UniProtKB/TrEMBL annotation:
<comment type="pathway">
    <text>Amino-acid degradation; L-histidine degradation into L-glutamate; N-formimidoyl-L-glutamate from L-histidine: step 1/3.</text>
</comment>
<protein>
    <recommendedName>
        <fullName>Histidine ammonia-lyase</fullName>
        <ecNumber>4.3.1.3</ecNumber>
    </recommendedName>
</protein>
<dbReference type="InterPro" id="IPR008948">
    <property type="entry name" value="L-Aspartase-like"/>
</dbReference>
<dbReference type="InterPro" id="IPR001106">
    <property type="entry name" value="Aromatic_Lyase"/>
</dbReference>
<keyword id="KW-0369">Histidine metabolism</keyword>
<dbReference type="GO" id="GO:0004397">
    <property type="term" value="F:histidine ammonia-lyase activity"/>
</dbReference>
<keyword id="KW-0963">Cytoplasm</keyword>
<comment type="similarity">
    <text>Belongs to the PAL/histidase family.</text>
</comment>
<feature type="cross-link" description="5-imidazolinone (Ala-Gly)">
    <location>
        <begin position="141"/>
        <end position="143"/>
    </location>
</feature>
<dbReference type="InterPro" id="IPR024083">
    <property type="entry name" value="Fumarase/histidase_N"/>
</dbReference>
<dbReference type="InterPro" id="IPR022313">
    <property type="entry name" value="Phe/His_NH3-lyase_AS"/>
</dbReference>
<feature type="modified residue" description="2,3-didehydroalanine (Ser)">
    <location>
        <position position="142"/>
    </location>
</feature>
<dbReference type="Pfam" id="PF00221">
    <property type="entry name" value="Lyase_aromatic"/>
</dbReference>
<dbReference type="InterPro" id="IPR005921">
    <property type="entry name" value="HutH"/>
</dbReference>
<keyword id="KW-0456">Lyase</keyword>
Amino acid sequence: MVELTGDSLTLKQMEEILYNDDKITLNSDALARVKKGREAVENIVQNDRTVYGINTGFGKFSDVKIDEKDTKALQLHLIRSHACGVGEPFPEVVSRAMVVLRLNALMKGFSGIRADVLERFAYMVNHKIHPVIPQQGSLGASGDLAPLSHLALVLVGEGFVWKDGKPISAKDVWREHGLSPIVLEAKEGLALINGTQAMTAQGVVNYLEAEKLAYDSEWIAAMTMESLKGITDAFHPAIHEARGYAEQISVAERMLEWLKGSGLTTKQGELRVQDAYSIRCIPQVHGATFQVLSYVKEKLEIEMNAATDNPLIFDDGEIVVSGGNFHGQPIAFAMDFLKIGMAELANISERRIERLVNPQLNEGLPPFLSSEPGLQSGAMILQYSAASLVSENKTLAHPASVDSIPSSGNQEDHVSMGTIGSRHAYQIIKNVRNVLAIEALCAMTACMYQNVENMAPRTREKLEALRDIVSPIDQDRIFAADIQKIEQFLCI
């Protein structure tokens, strides 16, 4: 059980909620803050104070005053009109993350929403009621308006939710659970959609999957090293301490742990003086990716606990301020950085694949790891696929955050495109996983041409785990199925 306070949610807790179906509970002190914030909104409405989003229009319509009798209708119109998402839906795990993160942000008590609405969000998480949310349509400021509007539609019974992998009416789901749709009060529609939770939710999933892949890349690279009789001197601690990057030092330490006890690796001068960069520089390159992950983790954990609504309510309603916390620039930068860091893991992996299959580089292994070179192509086209994926990644890695298009009559004249960056990062991560799956298949096959008994105990254990799901390349077959099986093996 994870308690949401609005201030303390971690990526580790998100992993438990998203992948282990942990339930959530709402902190009582935070709920007390929420109730005070709601009282402030009700006082503003009753006293006819003019406050953006409570009794005014939105965006360019912010100067249009709304009568008290229309404040409820204003919120529903907002949700309906802003639900303009298009394209394929976000993965269900991202939808779940979005609900949790929007709920956690509202728990801070600065948004003026009723506790009843937040309790319904918690019910959705605990009963796996996950909105169907189209991926495209957000500029990343004013927050993720279109995606979060599709989330909010579920609350009012007008959207769709996932059930057994298919979308069904939210209205029908509430009926099944014996609950009525939420009727939005003043400011609540705006509070639900003015935030960065789409890009951040996708970013959380990106980070969790990327971190696992970064660790997986090490044992896969270690198997490649053994099959090529790589030189372990390159991982000597003194080299990495001399440079000083903690992440680089840690990768070198873990590589030596993976290869501990191996009879297949070599020392410098035994077969050759030094290895190619894709082998020798694993700590430097993989370590740099871990530096990126550290940066991304820091930004995500701040944003996960951030108030990204507008306006924000302070001092029991004495101070109501319009600002720009919905602007997704910090996450846009983080996602663009993540794209580059993960793309490089695939780049260096593809170069190791080339060394495994190229007869001029693979230290006497069969050409393309073929059991009958010429008659059977072996892993030749596996390298083609990896090359295609890393090339696609180079296009996807173009930073989304450098773009901006004015909107809302030029009132919202600079936007982050952070959700585009976050979505592209997820595509890159999927491509990286497939490249690593290809390297794993080639490395496993190459190790089989060596004396498997001489492998390091830990890499031998991984090889046996792979052999439980796919066979080494002993003859030509449809390798797409093998890649898919290993890719699933590498998933969280």
